[in-house]
Amino acid sequence: MSQKISSPSHSNSSSSSKHDSRQDSWEIVEGLRGGLSNIQEPEKQAGYMLKKRKWPMKGWHKRFFYLDKGILKYAKCAADVEKGKLHGCIDVGLSVMAIKKKAKCIDLDAEENIYHLKIKSQELFDEWVSKLRHHRLYRQNEIAMFPHEKTLFHPHYPPTSSPTIPDSQSIRKVTPWDICISAGSIRLHASNPNLSSVDLTNEKTYHEPLDSPVDVSKLQEDFCRVANNREFCHSKLVLVMYLFIRMMHLIILPQFLHFWLRIDGSRPLVHQVSNESRASITESLSEFFDAQEVLLSASSSENEPSDDDSYISDISDNVSMENFSNEVENERLDTGGTNGGSQEQRRSCLPSPSPNTSNISLWNILKNNIGKDLSKVAMPVQLNEPLNTLQRLCEELEYSELLDKAAHTQDPFERMVYIATFAVSGYASSHYRAGGKPFNPVLGETYECDRPDKGFRYVAEQVSHHPPISACHAESKNYIFWQDVRWRNKFWGKSMEIVPVGTTHVVLPGFGDHYEWNKVTSCIHNILSGQRWIEHYGEISIKNSNSEKCQCKVTFIKAKYWNSSMNEVEGAVTDHKGKVVHKLFGKWHEGMYCGSPPSATCIWRTNPMPPDYEQYYGFTKFAMELNELDPLTKPLLPPTDTRLRFDQRLLEEGNIESAEMQKQRIEQLQRERRRVLEENHMTHQPRFFQKSKDDTWVSNNTYWELRKDPGFSNLDCPVLW
After folding, report:
1. 307: which DSSP letter?
2. Which of 258-267, 275-284, 513-522, 544-553 comes out lowest in average pLDDT?
3. Helices and strands (H, E) in the chain, number of each type
4. What's residue 214's pLDDT?
5. Taking the model in full, what pTM does it have?
6. Contact in structure between 642 and 436 (CB atoms under 8 Å)
7. 9-63 pLDDT tens trace
8. How many whole angstroms separate alpha carbon 519 and alpha carbon 522?
9. 230-250 burial, b for 16+ CB within 10 Å, e for fewer?
10. Cα–Cα distance between 391 and 459 in angstroms, integer?
């Protein structure tokens, strides 16, 4: 017989390979299905596990974990857990749980934080996974049975007893931490999508946001109930203080700010307390709330409390309007124009509003991709916005006047202030953009942006597909800007982390300055349900590679769990000895200030959003202009320019069905081009960028010359779509 039969060893090898592949991938742990059930109370579990360390430290450290009725507490040792000196607390029932068997890793996405755990022993790993599964189901069933009690009291922590570590003789009383352990769990989140569409009880389940009138009245009821409960008299003072602060924040403060807004219409309504109030809150409640995780970064998704629990003051209300510097706003220095074909009048609205995506089940798409890079996962075109990554990078130049200002500032420390503010301003446009993702550029795709009104011209190219790398270059008579960026996108069950890798460069030829800085981690929350929102966290370190005279560090602060203040940024410009010369603070979606309140100077404020921006992908006016294709520019573009891409153009025009068909066709064409290259042992060579000595992509300075002569219409260009 000529047919070759596989040997048993070969079959076993193939089967083993598939098994190893499954072991090496993330597996989502299923939650409660089909409604209420009779789940036996699980046994307590305690022991040591490795937990990823907080930023800026790397690696793992050992922590003692104690699991009881679906609540996972951890501290440095068992004695600290017994004393209530906790580092953190996780409601397993409200978390998405994923495991990687081969690496013996457990990830818990609790929405506010992502916890990465690891166990060395296979036996202990299996034991913890089994216990966590049981406790998670038990806790989810408990939440379904007690939809109201879960908001403040743990139904199984009676006032006369308290949880203890197994085999321990010491019994401690309930602490305010035990009582308030579930205070933030207002609703059953998307940790278990199977429950999201099931009516588990006749009682009303709260789906309103935290600051809703329902929650305010609930807090009032809880305040009275706790204050009159004699069985909790030993912790009454702290509880009353906590609830009083929350009521002040939710009821009195917004009314006061609303009244203040009516008096001074120039001040935006910001729901946050003053610096002094935050300090007193932190001191009073630090004993019980020091377990909250406060700072995340690219090196660690979850962290322990920082020793420096400082807050930024209420920027909009504490900084005197008389001290605002309006020199930067609307200022355009005479930066000259660029070569022809640029339009004078630009559009202020998109052709069609964003589509309805409520009929798309993200869970079905993402449930098998926990912990994976989502850049390789195909998404429906409705989840995109009609811009791609090359254009997104151009959005970082929306406030390029800050670079112009830096180029005309003699003092090196003040120049660093403008450079740092420019680095922050690049995140402003993302504030209303958590609902969509940019198109992934295909290999060889390009984009140009010629803006005489802003004094710069910009070109970008997709220089690599695996890994996806986008390179861009912009120049004006005042500065040169370039970067190459690659992203690692990880989905953890409720949230998605976007970790950029690469360095941003700005050169000011007039002073010989060459600034370099990194990007921070971004995280989109409520991926599966609720209102999606984005935050950025981590530290930007800015240095001038041609001078050690000054440097700057800017920290994007992780939102506090018990504080409504969000999107805060603080930084400092220091001299070569580390002495602080300028202090910076602000919010990345509002503005940045230099100095100390109330005499701080406004360095930058965001432009107003266009009318009905919510209906048009949350785009700023600058973003709306990026994909516009005017008759003057079209003949000058190479056929690889993003604005000529069919699927993106059709989505912008509201033709979803045709956009999806074109998207699939363009992706298939890319796969075919890649196969041809592989068969011929060839590699793609970018046309307008080249590798530098430090292995980064830089412009080869040919784009604008070729555009002028002989023109792209006279050149041989690849067919991408």
Report:
1. S
2. 275-284
3. 17, 26
4. 45
5. 0.66
6. no
7. 444 555 555 555 555 678 888 887 766 678 889 999 999 999 988 765 678 999 9
8. 9
9. eebeebbebbeebbebbbebb
10. 10
Q: Which residues contact 88 (CB under 8 A, 6 or more apart)?
A: 73, 74, 113, 115, 291, 292, 293, 304
3-state secondary structure string across 95-106: CEEEEECCCCEE
CB 355 within 8 A of CB 654: yes
Cβ atoms of residues 294 and 558 within 8 Å: yes
- Name the pairing type of β-strands 496-501 and 480-491: antiparallel
What tens digit of pLDDT does each residue of 335-347 get? Answer: 444 455 556 689 9
Higher pLDDT, 334 or 697: 697
| CA-wise closest residue to 555 among 243, 309, 323, 206 | 309
Which residues in 171-203 are b (16+ Cβ under 10 Å) and which e?
Answer: eeebbbbbbbbbbbbbbbbbbbbebeeeebeee
What is the per-residue pLDDT for 277? 34
Contact between 624 and 349 (Cβ < 8 Å): yes
Q: Are 452 and 481 in contact (CB under 8 A)?
A: no
Question: What percentage of the chain's residues is helix, strand, coil (to nearest 5)?
Answer: 30, 20, 45
Q: Taking the CB of residue 636, how many other CB atoms lie within 10 A of it?
A: 18
Q: What is the pLDDT of residues 613-653, one digit of tens each?
A: 999 999 999 999 999 999 889 999 999 999 999 999 999 99
Q: Going by C-beta distance under 8 Å and a sequence separation of 6 or more, which residues neighbour residue 415?
A: 406, 409, 508, 511, 513
Question: Residue 586 forms beta bridges with which residues?
Answer: 569, 592
Q: Measured between alpha carbons, how far is 637 from 523 in angstroms, rounded to an integer?
A: 35
pLDDT bracket for residue 358 (50, 70, 90): confident
Q: Percentage of the chain with pLDDT > 70?
A: 67
∠376-378-382 over CA atoms, to 5°? 135
What letter represents residue 222's amino acid?
A: D
Distances 523 to 285, 537, 558, 579 between C-alpha atoms, Å: 28, 8, 10, 33
Q: Is the pLDDT of residue 138 over 60?
A: yes
Cβ–Cβ under 8 Å, residues 179 and 149: no
- Please state whether beta strands 437-439 and 384-388 pair in parallel, antiparallel, or not at all (unpaired): parallel
